[in-house]
Specification:
single chain; 434 residues; mainly alpha; 0% strand
Length: 434
Amino acid sequence: MAGTALPTDNLPKTAPGSFGRQKLVQLAGRYSLSAIGPIATSGAHFAASLIFLHRMEQAEFGLFSFLLVIVPFGLSISSGLLCAPLVSAIGKPGTVGEGERAAFRAVNRVFALIVGLVTAVLMYTSKAGDWASVLLGFYGATMAMRWFSRSNAYYHSHPLRASGSDLIYSVFLVAGLLVLMAIDQLSMEFASCVLLGSALLSLLPFGWKFLRLQLLPLEKNAFRLYGPIWRDITRWSLMGVALSEITANAHAYVVTFFAGAQSFAVLAAGALLMRPLMLVMTALPDRERPVMGHALARGDIKSAFTTMNEFRIASAVAWLGTVVLSIGILVWFPQLIVRTGFDYREVVVVVALWALIVAVRAARTADATFLQAACEFNGLARAALPAGIASLAMTLVLLLIVGPVASLGGILAGELVTSVNIFALMRKWKRDHA
């Protein structure tokens, strides 16, 4: 992958070598800037989940928790369908790269509509109500548009726009829900309005010029230009994302549809403490992937490896901090996540299982992001296939034989299989290229 210098070449890089105090400070500063938006979003979702947990019926809390699985799944599909393949435009002539970006915009418009429709149907079949399902469908579509916009901002060296979008979404979401609580009008419908309004406002930082491109008539031959991208990259990246979703969240769909939203509520409550870290781990690759991609485009494999190692260290520190905080909450403030009707011991077991699951996921995220930057989508998809099958099968068996909490064991097994396969793929890439 060869190319000329690009705008993101001036992103902060850390020279290879041992990690001294100065390097750790630089690393902390870099990831603090990169993670401020995802942390704000995850914090807002955590606060919203606490509000739903303590101020709504258990089934309604389960429905909103299910929503926070459905929509992030759509965002993950967006990453595989659009965001990760943006790497393919790196290093290409301007006209070629712009043609590919026009194709991405066209596909994103259709995809956002699909996300909205699927979200509305799933929420309706889960008994969310007519109006709430419609509003949440528009919310899902808007969030898909926002996710693509964030990735574009990173690839064009505008990280502050992405962070600004995250912050606006977070502030208005929490503020809106607090207002509903204050006037005693917290309901499925009004909460859905707040979610949709926050998502719409979060599009503003990307600017009218960019948003106008999303609304103009489709560029001529846009879908035709996407054909080669689909053939060479997207079908594999999309397959990998879909299988990873099955591996990570099979329990949500299986438990909700077989045992009901009320049973999923217990798993969702236990997952609350890990959810901020999971969201950050989902969002940060969109920041780090272009950094690695541009390094690989100019043949600087050493810098790409350095970024990967820094990402791995940051993930480990974030996981450790989350676990320490979770233990403190469970010991001194259990009432935050253990509402009336929940078994405290069950919630503790769920938190412990999620901590293990996220640890395995965090350990491989840096390697997976590097392989995406290297356009190894075929190998990543093949690595996820056995894990998806194992996760779905074990989750269903454990749910039917033991119960909802035990179903998380299937997720853990799938994550372990995925990680082993990705580490093997990374070793092969190093042998072939480094």
